[in-house]
Amino acid sequence: MSVFASLVERLADLLQPIFPGTAAAAAIILFTALVRLAVHPLSRAAARGQKANARLAPKVARIREKHRDNPERLQRALMELYAKEKASPLSGCLPSLLQLPAFFLLYHLFSSGSIGGEPNELLSHTLFAAPLGDRWTDALGDGGVLGDAGLVYLVLFAIVTAVAVFNYRRTKRQMAANPLPQESAPGMGAMTSFLPLLSFGTLITVAVVPLAAALYIVTSTTWSAVERVVLYRDMPAAGALANPL
How many CB atoms lie within 10 A of CB 169? Predict the structure, then answer.
């Protein structure tokens, strides 16, 4: 924790001339971008896997229908198919899982009053009027929704909502133009409708975590929206099934 705190402090010092007063917030955004950049090769691999899964959907459906009364044979046949095609039903999960340690580090860093037995000086940093260690409830108690700190959260909520609406509408257009085959795996249609709604759930997370962690989430979610447009431009239907976070 102390090493990570030192990293954030150094990034903030470097950015201080460019972002006076909000250097720590800018450092968190930069840190998030660096994490996403490091994970990007895995996101590209996940995109290839999602496209392979989309192409395999009719075969998977036929295998499920053929072996629906024999779960053991069904599992073996699916594993053989994925191995033969060098695909994985979980190909889209790895990039999101690898980001969790960075998120939890920020969460704990800005939730702790002390680091290594010393006062946590990062808690003194703010994004305009909102302390990076505070939550939305703190902003509501200090000026309300339209107070100085409350307005910072309103901007974050607006960004998350815009990204969620973008994801949802884009997915609807993609699936209308590239509908899933009728023989696709059971529940695939429901999954396609549910995944874009995950971005709306981010609003709750932004409201309950420290502002520093909320900045990570907002930056990462926005990055994901742009990344999906680029990685799935040649196969929109597969992009509709990708994790939006």
Answer: 11
Higher pLDDT, 192 or 44: 44
Distance, CA of 175 to CA of 178 (rounded, Å) = 5
Nearest to 134 by CA among 191, 76, 213, 66: 213
pLDDT tens sequence across 178-204: 655 544 445 555 555 666 677 788 999
Q: At what angle do helices 198-208 and 211-231 cross, to 10 degrees?
A: 160
28 vs 33: CA distance, rounded Å: 9
Distance of alpha carbon 66 from alpha carbon 77, whole angstroms: 10
For 168, the token pair is 């949802």
* Cα–Cα separations (whole angstroms), residue 211 to 19, 55, 116, 122, 137: 17, 41, 22, 12, 11
Joined together, the tokens standing for residue 140 give: 């509501």
SS3 69: coil
Token pair for 217: 């989430």
Report d(CA 182, CA 65) in Å as an integer: 13
pTM over 0.90: no
List, for residues 63-95, the tens digit of each pLDDT value: 888 888 888 888 888 888 777 766 666 656 777
Distance, CA of 114 to CA of 51 (rounded, Å):
46
CB 215 within 8 A of CB 29: yes
Tell me how far apart the terminal alpha carbons of the chain are, to the nearest angstrom. Answer: 25
Structure tokens belonging to residue 234: 């040649």
Q: Can you tell me which residue has the tokens 């680091």?
A: 115
* Whether 109 contacts 4, CB under 8 Å: yes
